[in-house]
Write a structure and sequence with these properties.
The protein is mainly α. Helix content is about 80%, strand content about 0%. α3 runs antiparallel to α5 and α3 runs parallel beside α6.
Length: about 170
């Protein structure tokens, strides 16, 4: 048994329930902005700007969901084209073989899949919030936008981190 560095243990805990931690961080961010608004440091009076941000977030979420689905498709396609089932991890000749013969492949697919689902749900939620125009305070819409921005950002960063790790695995095994 070997000692795993702290950053990898933290990352492992985070990747087991990423949406929960993303939601927690977004609520903390939103509460911080609410506090700054109450103290008068931030002002959310412009309804047009908030609606514009909501429209931009809708466009961004569907585009990023497409990017993540494309990445997932590429990884699954590579898996179909590589026959790594019979190889042991020690016998892997390339990073691709190592990746597909380890448990990392299924974990990676799960992370990409969850990221795509989160972004599609964010798209749906943002679109519905734009369609259902309730008479809600600008502060609420602003805090809702902050929550969405943080969740979208963390979801994309998680997917990019995973993609970079897969690429590094490929380059390190050559």
């Amino acid at each position: 048994m070997y000692d795993v560095p702290l950053k990898y243990r933290i990352l492992d805990v985070y990747l087991k329930h990423p949406f929960l931690y993303d939601l927690l961080l977004s609520i903390i961010s939103s509460a911080s902005i609410w506090f700054l608004t109450i103290k008068g440091y931030v002002n959310f009076e412009s309804s047009e700007i908030i609606q514009s941000i909501n429209t931009d977030l809708i466009s961004v979420t569907i585009s990023l969901a497409g990017f993540i689905l494309a990445s997932l498709t590429i990884i699954v396609t590579f898996k179909d084209s590589v026959d790594a089932k019979g190889k042991l991890i020690e016998d892997a000749e390339t990073g691709k073989d190592l990746f597909f013969s380890s448990g990392s492949y299924f974990t990676s697919v799960k992370i990409f899949y969850q990221s795509a689902i989160i972004l599609l749900l964010m798209f749906l939620l943002l679109s519905l919030s734009k369609l259902i125009k309730l008479d809600i305070d600008n502060l609420f819409y602003s805090l809702f936008s902050v929550i969405c921005i943080v969740i979208i950002t963390l979801t994309v960063l998680r997917s990019l981190y995973l993609l970079i790790m897969v690429i590094k695995l490929q380059t390190n095994r050559k």
